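Quiz preparation item.
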């Protein structure tokens, strides 16, 4: 089924220090001069967030079509892996679907898009919304049957994310949970794994990228996104800055990077890829 993109802009501003901003602009401008001369060539390795991997892969395909002498390898594995791979020199660019932590401030950040994390249930589940207290009780094993919260007499299957996944960290932070307190029935990796698991089990509940889930719903996958704090889990709410569990989709790099890396970063931050971003139900980041 064809996706209908949400053509919306995020109103938030990204603030950079004057010194860092000037340095980045000079570096990118110099690299862009190479792009204009047709001499862009080389290879890039990009690893990290499974939420971002399909998006960045599409952007990379468009970039390579314009620069045939460039090869870009995009690999998923989680935001933590992308950040670590860049720091260790394994990857040129890391994809992260969460903001960097204080201990990761040695890397430079380039926002590409904004997404949200939503709770999902099977489409047949009649429960329309959960309070934060109910969510915590479900994921910590205190509520084990949907009948306890107005649903059918059916066991709840808790679908939880594996360590190193940014979606996990966003979820735990929002609900003020510690990972050891969660009592999962199934542990999954990427968003599509979580969606498939919930779609195949009427009693399941999980949490995934709003962009990923919305695209799957449009394709007929039998899941439903639950509102949070009375706010719909959709890209309109994310774009307006109203959805409570929103997060940035960023690319991270080392300071001592190659010019080709800056050429690609500039492309990822340009209006030339906004159609790709919105087609995957994400919101372009403010520039």
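Solution:
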């Amino acid at each position: 089924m064809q996706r209908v993109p949400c053509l919306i802009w995020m109103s938030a501003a990204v603030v950079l220090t004057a010194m860092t901003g000037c340095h980045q602009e000079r570096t990118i401008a110099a690299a862009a001069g190479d792009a204009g001369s047709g001499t862009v060539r080389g290879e890039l390795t990009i690893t990290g967030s499974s939420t971002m991997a399909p998006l960045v892969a599409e952007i990379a395909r468009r970039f390579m079509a314009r620069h045939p002498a460039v090869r870009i390898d995009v690999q998923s594995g989680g935001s933590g892996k992308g950040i670590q791979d860049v720091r260790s020199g394994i990857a040129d660019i890391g994809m992260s679907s969460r903001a960097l932590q204080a201990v990761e401030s040695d890397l430079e950040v380039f926002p590409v898009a904004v997404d949200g994390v939503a709770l999902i249930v099977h489409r047949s589940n009649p429960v329309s919304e959960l309070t934060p207290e109910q969510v915590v009780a479900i994921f910590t094993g205190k509520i084990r049957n949907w009948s306890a919260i107005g649903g059918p007499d059916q066991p709840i299957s808790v679908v939880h994310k594996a360590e190193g996944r940014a979606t996990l960290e966003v979820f735990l932070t929002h609900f003020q949970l510690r990972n050891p307190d969660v009592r999962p029935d199934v542990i999954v990796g990427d968003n599509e794994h979580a969606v498939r698991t919930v779609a195949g089990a009427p009693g399941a509940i999980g949490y995934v990228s709003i962009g990923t889930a919305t695209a799957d719903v449009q394709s007929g996958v039998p899941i439903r996104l639950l509102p949070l704090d009375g706010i719909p889990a959709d890209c309109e709410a994310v774009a307006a800055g109203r959805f409570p569990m929103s997060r940035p989709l960023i690319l991270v790099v080392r300071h001592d990077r190659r010019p080709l890396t800056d050429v690609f970063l500039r492309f990822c931050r340009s209006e030339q890829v906004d159609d790709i971003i919105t087609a995957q139900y994400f919101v372009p980041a403010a520039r």
